[in-house]
Hints:
Blueprint: E1 10-16, E2 20-26, E3 32-38, H1 48-61, E4 76-83, H2 85-92, E5 98-103, H3 109-112, E6 134-138, E7 141-144, E8 157-160, E9 166-171, H4 175-187, E10 192-196, H5 205-216, E11 221-224, H6 225-228, H7 234-260, E12 270-274, E13 280-282, H8 294-307, E14 315-320, E15 325-330, E16 336-342, E17 345-352, E18 355-358, E19 363-368, E20 371-378, H9 396-402, H10 425-445, H11 454-478, E21 488-492, H12 500-507, E22 511-514, H13 521-528, E23 531-542, H14 548-568, E24 574-584, E25 591-593, H15 606-611, H16 614-626, E26 635-646, E27 668-674, E28 677-685, E29 694-696, E30 699-702, E31 707-710, E32 714-718, E33 724-728, H17 742-766, H18 770-773, E34 778-783, E35 789-793, H19 802-814, E36 823-826, E37 838-845, E38 855-862, E39 891-895, E40 898-899, H20 901-909, H21 923-951, H22 953-986, E41 990-996, E42 1002-1010, E43 1015-1019, H23 1035-1050, E44 1064-1067, H24 1083-1100, E45 1113-1117, E46 1122-1126, H25 1155-1161, E47 1164-1171, E48 1188-1194, E49 1198-1203, E50 1224-1228, E51 1234-1237, E52 1240-1245, E53 1250-1254, H26 1287-1295
Parallel strand pairs: 1-4, 4-12, 5-6, 5-10, 10-11, 14-21, 21-22, 28-30, 43-44
Antiparallel strand pairs: 1-2, 2-3, 7-9, 8-9, 12-13, 14-15, 15-18, 16-17, 19-20, 22-33, 23-26, 24-25, 24-26, 27-28, 29-32, 30-31, 32-33, 34-35, 34-38, 36-37, 36-39, 37-38, 39-40, 41-42, 42-43, 45-46, 45-49, 47-48, 48-53, 49-52, 50-51, 50-53
Amino acid sequence: MSAPTSGNKYCFAIDRGGTFTDVLCICPGGKVRTMKLLSEDPERYSDAPREGIRRILKEETGQELAASGLVDTSKIGWVRMGTTVATNALLERKGDPVVLVVNSGFRDLLYIGNQARPKIFDLNIRKPANLYQSVVEVDCRIVPEQADRCELNHSWKVLEGVASTKYLEVQPVDVEAVRASLTAARDKGVSSVAVVLAHSYACPVHELQIGAIARQLGFSHVTLSHQAMPMCRVVARGYTACAEAYLTPHVDRYLASFKSGFDNQLAGVDVLFMQSDGGLTNMENFRGARAILSGPAGGVVGYALTGSRETKLPLIGFDMGGTSTDVSRYAGSYEHVIESTTAGVTIQAPQLDINTVAAGGGSRLFFRSGIFVVGPESAGSHPGPACYKKGGPLTVTDANLILGRILPQYFPKIFGPKENEPLDYEISKSKFIQLQADINSHLKATGDDRHLSIEQVALGFIRVANETMCRPIRALTQSRGLDTANHVLSCFGGAGGQHACAIARNLGIAKVVVHKYAGILSAYGMALADVVQELQEPSGLEFSDANGQQLKDRLDALSQQCHAKLAEQGFRQIELEPFLHLRYEGTDGALMCAPTAGKDSAAQSPLLTAYGDFHATFLKRYRTEFGFVLQNRRIIVDDIRIRGLGKNETPPESEIKRNSETTPPAEGNSRIHFDQGSFDAPIYLTKNLLGGHQIAGPAVLIDQLSTIIVEPECGVQVTAFGDLIMDVKTGGKHGINAELDPVHLSIFSHRFMSIAEQMGRVLQRTSISTNIKERLDFSCALFGPDGGLVSNAPHIPVHLGAMQETVQYQLRVRGDTLKNGDVILANHPSAGGSHLPDLTVITPVFYESVSRPVFFVASRGHHADIGGITPGSMPPHSTSLAQEGAAFKSFLIVENGLFQEKEIIKRLTTPTAAKGAVGTRNLSDNLSDLKAQIAANHKGIQLVSELIDSYGLDVVQAYMSHIQKNAELAVRDMLRQIGQDSLARTGCTVLQAKEFMDDGSPITLKVTIDPEKGSALCDFTGSGVEVWGNCNAPRAITLSALIYCLRCMVGHDVPLNQGCLAPIQVIIPKNSILDPSEGAAVVGGNVQTSQRIVDTVLKAFRVCGASQGCMNNITIGDETWGYYETVAGGSGAGPGWHGAGGVHTHMTNTRITDPEILELRYPMILKRFCLRTDGSGGRGQFNGGEGVERDLLFRKPVTLSVLTERRTLQPYGLAGGEPAKSGRNLIVKRDGRVIALAGKTCIDVDAGDTFAMKTPGGGGYGHISDSTKTVGNSDLKNDKRFVERGTVFNYLQAQESA
């Protein structure tokens, strides 16, 4: 056990970050030393943490080396450290070669992952690189028993899993084959193995066999997935096991190198490393997969334990450094997540919920199409900002330097090529002068006679940067139903103090806490942290009184093991925290729950008596996060977990001297630029401040490690411990006018998008269906008074722009009859709908005495069933709209503030006139989700009303228009460029393309570009007539596809609103496949024809080869259950990139169900899920991506519905590239017969039958003869971007995967 100090020895807490290494030393007698070093400085030292220890020992004792010539350890008490070594290896893919062992048929399972593409508008799809070098497929398989559902005739051996679960051994391990394959891998020099087998988390017998073989063969690192993390979901568990095998050898080498520079390799010194969960562990137990957040976790511990003494309010941690900005929350306990994604790798392990939301001081500055843009590109630590004198670009740091908020004379001289020079103001100024000229030139061209100074330009970028960082902070709090303003901002990190006041004011937060060690708070957190021992096992039991004793027994067993492990390390004070990972049956929203302290007054179960009330915690958390609880629904225990804390004694923190003078003397003055104007602000050195000192803003506070800016109308007080409490004035009306300002244009763009995002959070929280709550298949949007789209979130491509048609239809139909308190429901294709299951709820918004709506809000959600001839309301053979369910053109679902429940129930439950049609099959979910959509709209009204209160109605409406015009400008710039390129290449500005559906229906497009005006005419005349089937696409679908294509071709973020289509005139022939008659079936148009429209547009613009052009919709079930999935394929290649395989493209990005979840919940066995090996991707200079093979074995008779395209016609290649192979649907009968299925069919299949699908690949690009000149995607230059992570990022990824 570590004491706070060790007698006359020196104790070190160190955070090795991406740019700087921070060192805090507690000297004998309690003196504290701090030091900041560059993390990489190979000309001066090989290891920054060791160098920091050496320098402080030398300065304090006069001697730093032992007789051995190594750092003397005789005076070192303990070392506690966090490091980015694992994170950097993951980001840069510099781990050890790994051989991955998987079940046969799953060789590409971790490459395909959840099949969603990382960025929905990137045509060059860059999937994260694999962590494994090679794959060994093993002929062994275990599946859940499903005794009550399985009708297969088999003699498979029954195996027992955890919690008495039963599994079937379909195929035992072929030991000799495994031995031969692993021997071949070992002989190629691979020494690390990751074994990932389906269902091994609950029944690990096969993994244990293979692990034993690997160890016998001499592999030095063998990771079994059930030991890396015993949790369900083979894909996430597989990533975790691979990360463990990939990173741990690298971490071990670093630890060996670190120790090697110390006398006796640190023997006898207590060395602890910070893990991602905020707990320390012995150096020997520091593993790769649990080290990803090692450094940032220290900061959370630091502000949690120090900030909470200054306030009872919950804290928001704001850690802004040079290369990233991290945001987290603390409300009396650490907020952990069990699964999070970093650098494309999903890690299943307890980790603090730390959200990396921006690139920190290194965020790059751009001026694009009349708008100020900050990030996401980053200058990184090398070359760094321009003022670092290494040839870097303009960044947030440069803007702060120009504004006087960074004072070079107080910064260390560690910059320039030799890292011995100060920050360079002149370089920053010269680059800002260039940018200033571009901005003023644009203003002049648009009729704006203002001339911005470089200080005004820099201040504009700072304001945009602040708003960029506020958006995810709002999402972090408001997504859980919390008020952002009801928090205290705890600011730390080297750059955080320059932005803290402005961030707090923007968020409505009145108080900011800055610890005296804020510049190195992550290091200080290492000194405060406890040693943590985690134990976890899967369960699967129902949470009930009947299982209470069994759950208690397992908690007891894990508690005893955890206590013993900590006692072995010498801890006498040990705390154990029990958790149950609980979820409602049939849902995926599991919550890790600790018991409440009180005991229920009802009959006491053994579990309740021993540990407390887990049930109450679950219900409270579920209601807080989701807005309701489910009645009469079983609760399932997914996992049982014990977190043991070996308590370290906290280093004493002494009070500083107090002074009766309330205002300290200043060191000097500095001219600083703020929103309120320019001021000569006094400068104070924090080392000279005493307890009780009070300072009014504006002011500059400087310590050795950071600069803190106190803005005008703010004040700061020094506490008894030397911490700073800043009071921030919030509220008040912003004094801007309605004239276009490029800075406010960017700020309003963020605010409008934030409103749509927060509406989505409310909808997701308060909805009840799987489609909306878990698959996140919805969109929320904000519209101007004319119904024109202003902002749309999340970005589901098939919804882009479509809701605008719906809102404008209501304006045409209802006009001035709309009243305050009315809410409209619509889904009809002729009223702007996409397909009938997508129900749109529209609310007109009135403000004060204005008689007409001042704006509109709307939310569109995919309902699981709204009636029709088949469950799910997506019949593959529908020929009329009436067969697809209930249709609404303009239904008042709320009138005068009253929910019209009786009327909507009647409409939903009454069958249409179609033969065989029924009403909705799930009325309760329909009603709950509709109410959630109404609640989401109400949130939007509230937020925009607050915006109007702050800025005024005229300003808000003006910026709605400005945002739309800015999107128009971006598209016009793109069209000018395309027109000029086309003119130079072909002598013509007319682009044409024709594509066909599998039934022969053409999609014809002629684009006539005016390169002078930046406008275009998109004429779909010649497209096929309406079809007798359901591949008719409503007009709104074509507009959505156009907006999607335009955004992809622009190549950078632009506001997605009606302005995108303003430069484009669209002609769509009536009664065609793209604008069918009122009663035409449309369900396939939404999911299939939309893809062909995109193919046609991109072909006309000569952008890239066709992607798979299909969503591969599969519906399986019977009268008691249903399952729906869409399946990935190949993406098209383009100029400079290969297509990606096994990924969703264009108008969909749906995640696929994890194989273990699929086999646990449904009577199916996934036999194969991998990339095609028959060359499905079109060849060319750049090759198209491969389609996938997916084989499903049915364990009982079911009905199979298939709605697919590209089964007849191949996805095209471009510029000489070859077409891809089309897809194929087969049924393999249990007697061995193979039967080909049509692209659109519905059949009954028997137990033992297998559905085998091959999805299309992507088209090639360029002539094959030029392929010798080709570089792969991984070799292409990629902009540096900060790596997002945390629950906010995961949520946005999930939204874009709906």
